[in-house]
Every structure is written in structure tokens, then in C-alpha cells.
Amino acid sequence: MILKYLGIFLALLLFGNIADVPFMFLAVRGEISLPFVYIVGFLTDVGSDFFWYWLGGKIGVERFENMKFFKQNPERINFVSKALDKYGMFMLFSSKFIHSMGVPTQIVAGAHRYPKGKFLIANVLGAGSTATVIYLMAKAFNSVDLIERYLHNINVSLLIFFLSAIGLHFLISGPLKRMFSRQ
């Protein structure tokens, strides 16, 4: 029993929200402790955010300025700073719901020395909201048959989307190239 929960803790710590989904599903089904999954998932999420924030602080803005992307246009650093000043809490909160944006956002916030209090508030609200959304989804889809039907429909929808996007690309890329090459 202890090894099972230690394994869950390590998976939540190392894999974050990817591990939250199956564990929350199992917790809703009563196979593991729901409070444990919710609390440990929340705490490991917030804890890992502070690790990335700390790492960003160690990296510093100076190293970002030396990257090719920022050297090409030095105003990009100022743009990021202004965006953090104006929309920082929203960006940090929203990054919890966009899988590949969480870590880069935390690192950039650390590098720009975003205020820790605001960082904490945004991440606590984001982690709590994410855990609640995952819980509600697990509650709504607590039947394996229902999940399989939705996953099949999602796969079919993604296939149609990708085929449409590729077809549209080939359909309009020629005329767009000709139109812009004349200017």
C-alpha cells in the first residue's frame, strides 16, 4: 500500500499533469484515495513551478539576450518584460492549461524576476483550477466505455482536421506565393 502511494507521488512529481489524469480517474472510481491524488497533485504542481522559477532566476535575462532568437531582434526581450508586467498573472495562470507552455513560462518569469507573491497566487489558482477541471472530467467520464467512444471520436476528428489542413495548405499555398511574390 505504501509503495503504491509512493509510486503515485513520484509519478505526479516527475510527470505532472500527464500523471494527474489517470490517477484522478482511478481516484474517482475509488481505486485510490481521491484526497491524496488531489492534494499531492496540487502540491507537486506548485512545487515544480517554483523549481522552474528558481532555474529561470539562475539563468537570468542576460543568457536569454545571448540566444540567437533575441540577438536577431533585441526588442523581443523588452516585449517579454512588458508582457510579464502587464499580463504576468494571466500568463502564469493560463500556462497551467496549455501543456507545453507551463515550464517555459515559469522559467521566463524567474529570469525576469517576476514578484514571487504574484507568482505564487497565479500558480496556486492555476494548479487548483487544473486539478478541479481534471477531477470534473474524470467524474464525467468515469466509465471506460464512454472514454473509449470519446477517444475514438477525437482520433477521427483529429485525422479529419489534419487531412483538411494539409489539403488546404496545398490548395492555397500556390496562389498565396504568387500573390506575395508580385509585391
SS-based class: mainly alpha
User: What is the makeup of the main sheet?
Assistant: none
Radius of gyration: 21 Å
Task: Please give the number of β-strands.
Answer: 0
How many DSSP H or I helices?
8
Helix content: over 70%
Strand content: under 5%
Low-confidence stretches: none
Q: Helices and strands, in N-to-C order?
A: HHHHHHHH
Mean pLDDT: 79
Give the quaternary arrangement of the chains.
single chain
- What general outline do the C-alpha atoms trace? flat
How far apart, in Å, are the first and last alpha carbons?
69 Å
Features:
183 residues; mainly alpha; 0% strand
What does this molecule look like?
The protein has 183 residues and is mainly α. It is 86% helix and 0% strand. The chain is built from eight helices and no strands. The protein has helices at 2-15, 17-28, 34-65, 68-72, 75-95, 102-111, 116-140, 144-181. α1 packs parallel to α3 (34-65), α2 (17-28) crosses α7 (116-140) and α3 (34-65) packs across α6 (102-111). The N and C termini lie far apart (69 Å). The model has no long low-confidence stretch (mean pLDDT 79).
Explain briefly what this protein structure is.
The protein is built from 8 helices and no strands. It is mainly alpha-helical.
Indicate the topology.
Blueprint: H1 2-15, H2 17-28, H3 34-65, H4 68-72, H5 75-95, H6 102-111, H7 116-140, H8 144-181
